[in-house]
Amino acid sequence: MTAPIRRVSTRMPGWAKVVSAVVLVLVVFFAGIRLSVLPGLKDLFGTETHDRSGPALLESIQDISRYDAASGNFQIVVDLEKDTKYLPDAIRGSRTLYVGAGTVDAYVDLGKVGKNDVTVNDDRTSATLRLPHAQLGKAALDADRSYAVSKQRGLLDRLGDLFADNPNSEQAVQKLAVRHISEAAKDSELTKRAETNTTTMLKGLLGSLGFKKVEVSYGT
């Protein structure tokens, strides 16, 4: 007489079903939000932005005696790649293409002009001015015209983005863009244009006051 065949139970325990359901919901949630594969899911779990910032506080006031005589507009495409030693880029690493647009002002500091730098004849028809050389201001990145073209991140970087926000993710490329824009301004003729414009402004101003001859020079 043959022994009865025992059937092995393949039913999943209750706790395992709960865990599997939670994991499935999380996978669908993140996939829908990140990849937009489920129509309407982004609207269902969409976020609203509320600006609850307090009023800006005035910390200090500085008197400015400089004449902004020229402004240059610059644009740079930053290609920043970060690699991890002994790991392929697909696992850990990032590469960002960023278009940075900004301006640099060139100015002449009229506050450094001393009494000996200005000479006027007795009948006040001729004036000679010696001014300091034009300088470059700090590069200012234009947020409205700067943007990331593409971002490539490894698997570990992407997983990290799911569970933590990184407000400084673009800070590195922004700083690099500012540095390149500053270097480009130094290589340009922006300070020369500023001195030319300052000379034109002073000759026009003093000419309207009755000066017939105005000479402007620049030096340290």
What does this structure look like?
The chain has 220 residues and is α+β, with helices and mostly antiparallel strands. The chain is built from 5 helices and 8 strands, in the order H-H-E-E-E-E-E-E-E-H-H-H-E. The chain has helices spanning 14-35, 41-44, 155-163, 171-187, 190-208; strands at 66-83, 93-109, 118-120, 126-131, 135-136, 140-141, 147-153, 213-218. The strands form 2 sheets. Strands 1, 2, 5, 6 and 7 form a 5-stranded antiparallel beta sheet that branches. The N and C termini lie far apart (115 Å). InterPro entries: DUF4230 (IPR025324). It comes from Streptomyces plumbiresistens.
Highlighted features:
elongated, alpha+beta, three-stranded mixed beta sheet, single chain, 220 residues, 5 helices, 8 strands
Overall morphology = elongated
Q: Could you estimate the helical fraction of the residues in percent?
A: 25-40%
Number of helices: 5
Please state the CA-atom Rg, rounded to the nearest Å: 32 Å
Question: Which class best fits the helix and strand makeup?
Answer: alpha+beta
Span from first to last CA? 115 Å
What is the percentage of strand-forming residues? Answer: 25-35%
Which stretches of 5+ consecutive residues score pLDDT under 50? 154-160, 162-168
Tell me the number of strands: 8
Instruction: Report the biggest beta sheet as strand number plus sense, adding barrel if it closes.
Output: 5 strands, antiparallel
What series of H and E elements makes up the topology? HHEEEEEEEHHHE
User: What's the overall average pLDDT, rounded?
Assistant: 77
Pfam families: DUF4230
InterPro entries: DUF4230
Organism: Streptomyces plumbiresistens
Protein name: DUF4230 domain-containing protein
